[in-house]
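Target protein
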Amino acid sequence: MKKRGITEFQVLSEIIRKQPHIKQKEIAKNLGITIQAVSEHIRNLIKEGYIKTGGRGEYRVTEKGVRRLKEWLSEMNKYLEEVKISIYRYKDVWPAIADEDLKEGDTVYLYMKKGLLHASKEEKGKAKAKVVEDAKKGEDVSVSEIEGIIEINKGEVIIFKIPPKIKGGSKSVNYKIIEEKLEEFKDKDYVVATMGTVGYVVAKKLGLNPDIRFGTLQGIVRATEKGCNVLAFITGGMTERIIKKLDEHKITYTVIDVYRE
């Protein structure tokens, strides 16, 4: 988001907080900018149709303005998450999962797997670090003196649209389609998410243990941001809610209807 966009976001936020009566002088004081700058931003916001004025210092945010505020908030949240990740890179000590037995002083490579940081003597990433303590394979281990960038590529989502109970539920699922997709992902890291009782049952019938069952919408987004691919078993009409959320966060997804008529 450009500096001008951030300031206009702040001006629009001030207006929606205190509409309709808010003085430009008050906005300028709250944001630490000049009244002239506030006036310029308000003219631009009116021109864009984000606010309307009734005169005498009355400003109201339009429906278009509310939509733009939501878009800005989404962009800002994404930006802040990226900043947080960058800040965490500079912690003195990081916890990771040991891929093999490690000794204090060992040099290891760091990489992400299923949303968790792993440490390995094999070259599995560009970031390197020093082991702070002895650890057995599979244990949590502390690492420090991190060099390089820990690569996190956003994951993708495969949505299996599961028929609701009114259409037969788990008994009306074409399991062959799902098994073929699972075969494609057998060498990839993925987590399993379910939404709805039937979706959960289908996953269990396939021998899968759901990683995400509650807060599924946010859980899927967070998993992809951590670099995980997600296989989501979503019951019926709940699919639309998932798709809307993924579109908002610009996450790649594929929808597969597994209803067997």
The chain is about 40% helix and 25% strand. The first strand starts at residue 51 and ends at 55. The helical segments are 3-18, 24-31, 35-47, 63-88, 175-184, 197-205, 216-225, 238-248.
